[in-house]
Q: What sequence folds into this?
């Protein structure tokens, strides 16, 4: 059974998690992986669906915050300009962005015959980290079919974490990194709401990691190195929000990264995307004026705290769940889970 951070008696912050402590605690959100683990390949795709319908026709309000922009993602410019997401989100490695882009376009065209004819084109969102230390990234092994497999595997419920999907070949703080998730629950106007985070953790220098109890694990035989990793954060909530408010919340993902000891080095691509499942935007809206619900700005600190806490825990869940991994050319990353078991008590 895969272990998580809380199995070692460690928690992040004061807010309570959702029942799964995962981004899929946000109603409607689905997640799927495709993992390629053979030969010198340690890679894959992870797909996140904000809802189960046609995202082009029912877009979700969204925002992006570029914490440090050393990255090659697709779709962020239009996302920032319009404040909308209109395809599933795909996470993969740096040189697979094109394959993910093509897969999302293919699916959107099949579902919407008016794209590029009676209406505009489509804006796929693909995010990436470089898994080249453990995987042969030059092989460019990921294909459209692999992206389709991740999309088709998307489901509600518990989330596979660690060395799966896009996280298969990732590293963090000198340990094995990967995919991790966490969530937080809170009440607004007497109703329960949820904020969840999905992290693709591939960042941090060995020796910089700080655990919630203050310990600083150092991987065996760690060597000093420049910070050239990346981290992708997807933040989802069911709270009605403006895109401007969503960007403010996305920015607080950086607070969660800082709690871990990250400083967002020059060569690091650190991106946070936030969206709300509340009040989807109708692509075919006939009215000139439409109603908009939004959070009272004086209550937004609760979501800021939730984003920081869930980000911190999502990254640590990724690292705890990921096993020690040997990949391309014998490159090795030890497991934080193994370190915690060896240093229990």
A:
């Amino acid at each position: 059974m895969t272990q998580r951070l809380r199995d070692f008696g460690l928690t992040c912050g004061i807010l309570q998690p959702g029942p799964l402590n995962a981004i899929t605690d946000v109603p409607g959100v689905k997640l799927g992986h495709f993992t390629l683990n053979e030969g010198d390949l340690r890679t894959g795709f992870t797909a996140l669906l904000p809802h189960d319908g046609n995202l082009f026709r029912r877009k979700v309000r969204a925002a992006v915050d570029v914490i440090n922009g050393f990255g090659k993602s697709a779709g962020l410019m239009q996302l920032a300009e319009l404040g909308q997401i209109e395809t599933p989100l795909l996470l993969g490695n740096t040189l697979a962005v094109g394959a993910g882009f093509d897969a999302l376009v293919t699916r959107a065209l099949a579902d919407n015959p008016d794209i590029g004819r009676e209406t505009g084109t489509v804006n796929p969102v693909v995010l990436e980290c470089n898994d080249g230390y453990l995987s042969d990234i030059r092989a460019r092994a990921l294909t459209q079919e692999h992206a389709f497999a991740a999309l088709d595997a998307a489901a509600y419920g518990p989330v596979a974490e660690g060395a799966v999907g896009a996280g298969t070949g990732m590293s963090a703080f000198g340990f094995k990194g990967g995919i991790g998730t966490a969530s937080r629950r809170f009440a607004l106007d007497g109703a329960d709401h949820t904020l969840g985070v999905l992290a693709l953790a591939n960042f941090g220098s060995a020796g910089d990691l700080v655990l919630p109890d203050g310990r600083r694990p150092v991987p065996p035989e760690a060597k000093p190195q420049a910070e050239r990793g990346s981290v992708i954060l997807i933040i989802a909530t069911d709270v009605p929000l403006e895109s401007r408010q969503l960007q403010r919340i996305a920015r607080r993902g950086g607070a969660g990264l800082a709690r871990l000891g990250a400083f967002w080095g020059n060569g690091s691509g650190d991106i946070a995307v936030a969206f709300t499942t509340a009040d989807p935007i109708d692509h075919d809206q006939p009215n000139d004026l439409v109603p908009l619900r939004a959070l009272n700005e004086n209550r937004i600190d609760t979501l800021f705290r939730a984003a920081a806490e869930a980000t911190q825990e999502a990254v640590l869940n990724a690292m705890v769940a990921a096993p020690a991994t040997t990949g391309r050319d014998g490159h090795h990353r030890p497991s934080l889970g193994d370190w915690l078991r060896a240093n229990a008590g």
